[in-house]
Design goal:
- By secondary structure, this protein is an alpha+beta fold.
- It folds into two domains: 2-35; 40-227, Glutaredoxin (3-Layer(aba) Sandwich).
- Helices cover 53% and strands 13% of the residues.
- It is built from eight helices and five strands.
- It has helices at residues 2-31, 39-43, 77-92, 112-141, 154-157, 161-169, 174-187, 214-227, and strands at residues 57-60, 66-72, 97-103, 194-199, 205-209.
- The protein has a five-stranded mixed beta sheet.
- The longest helix is centred in the first third of the chain and has 30 residues, at 2-31.
- The chain is globular, with a radius of gyration of 22 Å.
- It starts with a helix and ends with a helix.
């Protein structure tokens, strides 16, 4: 009986130690903004990111003070999921916010690189408007579309199929897409979707990662703007 009692005490001590350790590390993570802490905690972060310019794929007012930089993989289901919410975010905040898209094709998605190149080839023909339209089409079609059939998306985008195919075949924008992936990686982007709210006046920024719901995206933007000087 004494032996069973000692065993029970030891087991209880192990459980208590485990819970105490878990709570300790959870608190430390929250203090460092690594857990589901407050928006204010997350807003303290900044990353070294290239300043967005109107020469990029820009959506919104050219003189907007705040820019939502989006790093996305066009084969990523979560990027597809957040895309309508980012569109809504831009429309609701159109007087103060612009949206810049940057490519971040993940190696595990075999169609992501060429999917990104499709949007660049479309923009090469039809300009910025064709680029943003191509995003909608590629997000919708890419998972099921074979790489060899990508040029057939030209009709839905509104550009010439033969020119789109030639652009893809010769890899005209392969380096541009890979350079954006490398630049994002060096800045600390690790997955998609990954957003950065950027203040063009001060250069301050804050990362917003994950496919957050619209309400949380708006909250993050509002908090960032309220802290701006």
């Amino acid at each position: 009986m004494q032996k069973k009692g000692n065993t029970l005490i030891i087991l209880l001590l192990i459980v208590v130690s485990f819970i105490a350790g878990y709570l300790f590390f959870k608190v430390k993570n929250l203090e460092q903004g690594k857990g589901p802490g407050t928006t204010e905690q997350k807003q303290e972060q900044q990353i070294k990111i290239k300043k967005p310019t109107a020469s990029e794929h820009w959506n919104g007012l050219k003189n907007a003070r705040y820019v939502w930089i989006e790093y996305a993989d066009l084969q990523c289901p979560y990027c597809k999921q957040i895309h309508p919410d980012l569109t809504k975010l831009l429309n609701v905040n159109k007087e103060k916010l612009a949206w810049v898209f940057r490519h971040f094709p993940l190696p595990l998605h075999e169609k992501a690189q060429k999917g990104s190149e499709v949007t660049e080839c479309a923009a090469d023909q039809g300009g910025n408007e064709a680029f943003w339209k191509s995003l909608e089409v590629v997000f919708e079609k890419l998972p099921e579309t074979e790489l060899s059939d990508l040029p057939k998306l030209a009709g839905e985008i509104g550009v010439d199929e033969a020119k789109l195919k030639a652009c893809l075949d010769n890899g005209k924008f392969e380096k541009k897409v890979k350079d954006q992936l490398e630049e994002g990686t060096k800045a600390g982007v690790q997955g998609t979707p990954h957003g950065i709210i950027y203040d063009l006046k001060t250069g301050k920024n804050t990362p917003v990662s994950g496919a957050l719901p619209y309400e949380e995206l708006q909250k993050q933007l509002d908090t960032f703007i309220s802290q701006a000087k």
